[in-house]
Amino acid sequence: MANNADSQNDEVCIEVSGLWKIFGPSAEQILSSEIRTATRDEIQEQTGCVVAVRDASFSVKQGELFVIMGLSGSGKSTLIRCMLRLIEPTAGKIIINGEDICGYDDKQLMAFRRKTVSMIFQHFGLFPHRSVIDNVAYGLKVRGATEEERYTRAQEVIEKVGLKGWEDYYPDALSGGMQQRVGIARALTNNPEILLMDEPFSGLDPLIRRQMQDELIDLQEELQKTILFVTHDLDEALKLGSFIAIMKDGEIIQTGIPEEVVISPAGDYVREFVQDASPAKVITAGSIMTEPEVIIYDWQGPKVALHLLKTSKSDHGFLVTRGRNFLGLVTEKSLAELIKNKGQSTRQALEPDIATCTNDMLLEGLFAMAVATKYPIPVIDDSGKLIGEIDNETILSSMVQYKETEAKEQETGKKETTTEETQSNV
Ligand SMILES: Nc1ncnc2c1ncn2[C@@H]1O[C@H](COP(=O)(O)OP(=O)(O)O)[C@@H](O)[C@H]1O
Ligand SMILES: [Mg+2]
Hints:
Blueprint: E1 12-23, H1 27-32, H2 40-47, E2 50-61, E3 65-69, H3 76-82, E4 91-96, E5 99-100, H4 106-115, E6 117-120, H5 132-142, H6 147-160, H7 176-188, E7 194-198, H8 206-223, E8 226-231, H9 234-240, E9 243-248, E10 251-256, H10 258-263, H11 267-274, H12 285-288, E11 295-297, H13 302-311, E12 316-320, E13 326-331, H14 332-340, E14 357-358, H15 363-371, E15 377-380, E16 386-390, H16 392-425
Parallel strand pairs: 3-8, 3-9, 6-7, 7-8, 11-12, 14-15
Antiparallel strand pairs: 1-2, 1-4, 4-5, 9-10, 12-13, 15-16
Bound molecules: adenosine-5'-diphosphate (ADP) and magnesium ion.
Adenosine-5'-diphosphate is lined by residues 23, 50, 52, 70, 72-78.
């Protein structure tokens, strides 16, 4: 799962504010007049201009995989192309690493495109008459690297994207997935800070597409780039995004982490997108865990442990080290047994085979664990620390809550149709 909050720092890398792109001759006039508030269709009808991006604002943190999702025509490509000024915005600011790139002159812009940002396109954009390695090394040639530097670096990234052995082939000998790997390798050669990806996997078969998504997650884990990823596919957005912005008719109508988008979709448009997404596939252990009810430290003897259970009216507790590292589960019964046998260390009362989960585990993975035990599931972090617990009730209620909201929406939806029907009958 890519939405691993601790793999990011909080530094803002990209900050877009009030960004507009209007295609057509009278773009500026539209912005300075009242008509700017009209709908996209009205504006197009009255002026012949297309509002491709309307007053978009968002910020992307360093190392974040930020997904822009929307149907075809919603303005995603225009927005992402503005980030490189392949399209000139009509108004607004694009601050990258503290500088407004809209104010860059040609020279600054060229340097910015060569060093800071790389783009990966849907249709790969490879040179058909150059070999794989020449395609990958091309960007470095433009930057003036020596031949040796270029090919050493190209070889490195080719291996990173799993294309070793294909260096001398031409693009048309490669499958779609492999061609896009060349596209990714080419974008990575100059080690850019930011990657822009415009529906990079949309042209691929579903199976290959999923594989490429997994590879991108691995690559991101390793390289920690800031990625702006455009897609029209919700599953892809939920799988990859640590943050999602949803566009409609040029506007960003909702932003949030994947769970927020699924659990509380803003408006019908987003709801329609998410209605097929199961909460089991997006809700994470970390988002529903609670503070463990009883924590026992391993220096506390069995009698103290039993006393702690009794005072908190619980029949079990989690045993941890001084640093709160998870050791396991002890129960009223196992402690009483130990005391009877004159055991000294509470560790001797640990129940065998207690399964744990991490905070990014999905609800669907928790179901199987939940049925295997009557005790809560302990949640531990990467270093083995106990950070929470999840009981069966919490798992169920998070599902039920979701289902109820869904049912309620269907009901209101039904009511509306009935009223409509009644009206049309009248
Ligand atoms: N060069 C252009 N001239 C006029 N209209 C354009 C141009 N490029 C895109 N558009 C229009 O802007 C809107 C947004 O397009 P685009 O950014 O390509 O959307 P998406 O990538 O979400 O499919 C569409 O209505 C499209 O027709
Ligand atoms: Mg597009």
